[in-house]
């Protein structure tokens, strides 16, 4: 469970498919002279049952991509699907329900409720939704994350790594179709960070979950099955079975990134960029 993805057998999980998909996904912030193009006609397929990392320089559009895939942000152009559901065009109420029922989120700052126990934090989103957790699934998640002895503890009684494990369990509790993790190890020391990555890896390998993780850390990306490299709002490359060294090397030659004005640079696509997982 704790082995980097490079040591896992390559190939898709049985019954794979696409958990999320975007075509021509474009996001501009602002308008006129101050407008910036955060995403520029991105095509992406997120393979079901796999662990995908998103890397790129600061300002390259990683968080925007994540937010658009989750329906947390509106798109300027293009289409986004979660499974078979097109989310572009859904009303806010439908989006709220879709996020609650079908997507799990893990953030850099664990976002736990301090007055609740670990167990209560884990089931909170389902409690709010009036949904009953599947007890067997929840047991599996709690055991995979090694949280059984900590369930009665409040966040302040847990280490940072344990708190992030609780946040991971909360994201997995409803057995979502997609788990989105934005810099999940950003606030952790390297040892506890590796622990959390091993658990995310376990969520994919042992529980069949689909995880997309934004990270700046090549070592974290090495736990994934596939790294997508963003630069200037475009997917410029991808790397299956990444190693930390290969990711670091690839990052060195990425453009410095940052937003730019719409239309200021002609759309030019590297060979293979935006290729779908199906086509590999
Ligand atoms: N709410 C916003 N309003 C205006 N511009 C925004 C907004 N959100 C993002 N941007 C712009 O879009 C660009 C892409 O932002 P995004 O946060 O997706 O980049 P990132 O790759 O996640 O960066 P970082 O690694 O620093 O978190 C940013 O550089 C920023 O200028």
TrEMBL record:
Keywords: ATP-binding, Nucleotide-binding, Transport. SMART domains: AAA. The keyword rRNA-binding does not apply. The keyword Protein transport does not apply. PROSITE patterns: ABC_TRANSPORTER_2. GO terms for cellular component: membrane protein complex; plasma membrane. Residues 20-257 form the ABC transporter domain. Residues 1-21, 255-280 are annotated as: Disordered. One of its GO terms (molecular function) is ATP binding. This is ABC transporter ATP-binding protein. The lineage of its organism: Bacteria, Bacillati, Actinomycetota, Actinomycetes, Kitasatosporales.
